[in-house]
Design goal:
The chain has about 400 residues and is α/β, with parallel strands linked by helices. It is built from 13 helices and 23 strands. It binds cytidine-5'-triphosphate. Cytidine-5'-triphosphate (CTP) binds near residues 191, 271, 277, 302 and 306.
């Protein structure tokens, strides 16, 4: 089942560490190659000998072992998936804040693969606001959390916080490796954010796009295994998502150039940027002085990136565009599907509260080339990104 898969199991100091022995055994039995990294505290709960015997590999604990340096970067890159089970409250806090005072944390920070964590702690600790903040931070890094279970805890109390059973973690790993990794090896080109069309050295024509929707799609694509090239207009968002390469551009012309170069080698292109439709014909090198009572600015149409990619599209490539409308939404969206030779148009209506520029939520309707039309409820942009990527995957394998 896991033949040829490389799995890195991280074990931290928690009573639930005994379950990691069973997990390692199940993974090895399923055909995976397993390496185990432990925190020093984990050794008080399970012995490296048990884990090295079951994993058939030496267990790593220290950054320096027997006079040599454990290469955490290579380990982080070796794995197809890293599972930290159990994840103690202490290691969780360190991961959320970028601490690196042991080998397990160094490997975590170097890992380029999906990371799954299975927290284990007492209910009061689990419910503490700082734990919640730390878990949210891990989620924002793209890490996957195996939900804790209710049951008897190490303290003798009954409640939430028990680490999931090894069978549940095993299934979670299976889903990540196979179902959730449907885009493994695929190259995806995404545009996001506004463009700024320069008038003079201090002024430009721009728009209110934040880039949030496109960035959420980029993160979701990467989560499913894609190699993402994100062409991002001037947005204040800081993006640090494994699997997403960010090319910052400013004008529609720069965005066009970046897309024209990358599209031929892309499997999927998602054009979510709010590209300026017009740009000043001449851009003044000097700051324009207010010497006249009226001021006229001549504009020329920008290149339509989506349309131009639609003209070059080859068999096997998927092209997705966006439409932001405030009247005749359906008709305009369907027209765009045809006129731009897109496979899918994602419509946001300006009439829906909580949709469009700047919001953290969006409400979309997807129009597909085969005639399917799916209207969704208002959701967070992350959830909307999931819906869009699910449809793209469905279309890809149809
Ligand atoms: N788009 C693009 N290049 C442009 C303009 C838009 O790639 N120069 C893309 C957007 O990223 C989006 C879609 O085209 O995916 C939007 O379609 P478009 O017809 O340009 O929408 P509007 O700008 O709203 O145009 P109109 O005013 O004609 O509705």
């Amino acid at each position: 089942m896991f033949d040829g898969k490389k799995i890195l199991v991280g074990v931290t100091g928690s009573i639930a560490a005994y379950k990691s022995i069973l997990l390692v055994r199940m993974l090895v039995k399923a055909g995976a190659e397993v390496k185990v990294v432990m925190t020093p505290a984990a050794k008080d709960f399970v012995t490296p000998l048990s884990l090295s015997t079951l994993s058939k590999n030496p267990v790593l604990v220290d950054l320096f072992q027997e006079g040599s340096w454990a290469n955490h970067v290579l380990l982080g890159r070796w794995a197809d998936v890293m599972i930290i089970a159990p994840l103690s409250c202490n290691t969780l806090a360190k991961m959320a804040n970028g601490f690196c005072d042991n080998l397990l944390l160094a490997v975590y920070l170097s890992a380029t693969c999906p990371v799954i964590v299975a927290p284990a702690m007492d209910e009061d600790m689990w419910k503490h606001p700082s734990t919640k903040t730390n878990i949210d931070k891990l989620k924002s890094f793209g890490n996957r959390i195996v939900p804790v279970e209710k049951g008897e805890l190490a303290s003798g109390l009954y409640g939430d916080g028990r680490m999931a059973e090894p069978e549940t973690i095993f299934k979670f790993v299976n889903d990540i490796l196979y179902l959730d990794r449907a885009l493994a090896g695929k190259k995806v080109l995404i545009t996001a954010g506004p463009t700024y069309e320069s008038i003079d050295p201090v002024r430009f024509i721009g728009n209110h796009s934040s880039g949030k929707m496109g960035v959420a799609i980029a993160a979701e694509m990467a989560q499913r295994g894609a190699n993402v090239y994100l062409v991002l207009g001037p947005s204040s968002l800081e993006i640090n998502v494994p699997g997403v390469f960010v090319k910052r551009v400013e004008s529609s012309e720069e965005m066009y150039e970046a897309c024209a170069e990358k599209f031929p080698s892309s499997d999927i292109a998602v054009m979510s940027a709010a590209v300026a439709d017009y740009t000043p014909i001449s851009k003044s090198k000097e700051k324009i002085k207010k010497t006249t009572d009226t001021f006229r600015l001549d504009l020329a149409k920008t290149k339509d990136i989506l349309k131009s990619l639609g003209q070059q599209k080859k068999n096997g490539q998927l092209l997705i565009g966006f439409a932001l409308e405030n009247n005749n939404e359906r008709e305009y969206a369907m027209n765009k599907l045809k006129s731009k030779n897109a496979d899918m148009i994602v419509l946001n209506s300006l009439n829906d509260a909580g949709a469009g520029f700047g919001h953290d939520t969006n409400k979309i309707t997807i129009f597909e080339k085969n005639g399917d039309e799916i209207a969704y409820e208002q959701k967070t942009k992350q959830q909307v990104a999931k819906d869009i990527v699910d449809r793209i995957i469905k279309m890809m394998y149809a």
